[in-house]
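Bench notes, bay 3.
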Amino acid sequence: MEVHTSKEVNAVNGTNLRLKCTFSSSSPISQHLSVTWNFQPEDLSSHELVLYYLQEPYNLPAGRFKERVTWDGNIERNDVSIMIWNLQPTDNGTFTCQVKNPPDATGVIGEVRLRVVQKVHFSEIHFLAVAIVSACVLMIIVVTVVIICRHHQKKAQEKRIEVTGTELKEKESLKVGEEKEDSPVED
């Protein structure tokens, strides 16, 4: 019997989590296939039964996972996963998934370490949002200033070209006028 789980999973406090566990057996799946999910808290106190499956899931009548764990597997697909609802910091610890499919009843037990992390505080989200928005506004201002400066430079250059062109025309007109005055008038 081979059982496969993630080694470690992180989840946010108050959310729901699917703990995935799959198996492969050297024997065809029998009606005697059983699945046992256990929990070992971080403080290494005694194991707690989380869920037992034998032809159907049996939920716990008491304990920390009462009404918070449901079967989410599909035996025909070799999936014996569970769903944990409303995660709590006290759910930090190691979950074990053991599958027995007689006569294939020995093998490695799957283990997954769960770490429940606190939600991100509003102040941290607020700070991040303000920083991102501020950076965007600053970039828009810089781009706008650059565009305005280039526009003014272009206008100033066009004005200089216009003034230079007008001065040249005036000089040419004066030159032509002077040449007319200097040349003898023919009758």
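Next record in the batch:
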Amino acid sequence: MLIWHPYNNIITNFNSILFLSCNHLPFNQMAFSLHVMFMVSTFIFSMLIQAQGDTTSSGAFIHSRAGYYPNSEEKGSETGRCGYGSFGAMINYGDVAAASDLYRDGVGCGACYQVKCTNVKDCSDEGVTVVITDQGSSDRTDFIMSQKAFRKMAQNSYAASSLLSQGIVDIEYRRVSCSYPNSNITIKIDESSDYPYYLAFVIWYQQGQKDITAVQLCETNNFNCKLLDRSYGSVFTTTSPPSGPLSLRMLFSGEDGDEKWVVPVNAIPENWKKGAVYDTGVQVEE
């Protein structure tokens, strides 16, 4: 499939100008000039694509501080305030963090951030990407990371030991897009649910760079919808839930004010059960 890019117009115009300017030259000089034209146009196109291609982050880094919590060499905490349970310890291969202000009363749960320490002697250029799974702070930190994630900010194992010995380090961070290519957005029915009177569930694998700011449940036969309460973190609840197979609707909101309702293709079955996990069948890239 051919995909037309707006920068193609720039390259076409550039090549036309050079071809006309070479038209009066002898054959051998024209051949050389056309070769140069091809190399230059290819270089310009690649630079333009690179300049506009980074859509995974929201922009400038913010300076802050980060620490780590103990007993987290391989995974994160299973008791985080986002309500993920054991899933929260292993999501993103254990590269997770508790956040202070970025927790935002639970709206920040599931968000991804690129975090880099700033000591050039110990720290790598790319840092680590962490997922928010908990709430917490310590001595003016924005992140308390799993030890596994904290070590990944270092250039090598020796530098990682140096970072761990410092406990809290200066960092810079920015919001980035969450991506789980092999996993759709998933919900797990909480153990506190009581069919058919009370329904609570947590959302797993939040994707993209926007927040889930509202969730509705709709009856699939008449589209009668009910707005759910955010109990805490990523846990949404309702008393007297709609009956029958249920369609989920999630409102994704960006920092720029852009909002979009996402309706998964898979419904929650009529006889839902506590502890059950349901694949929504949808992924979000924005």
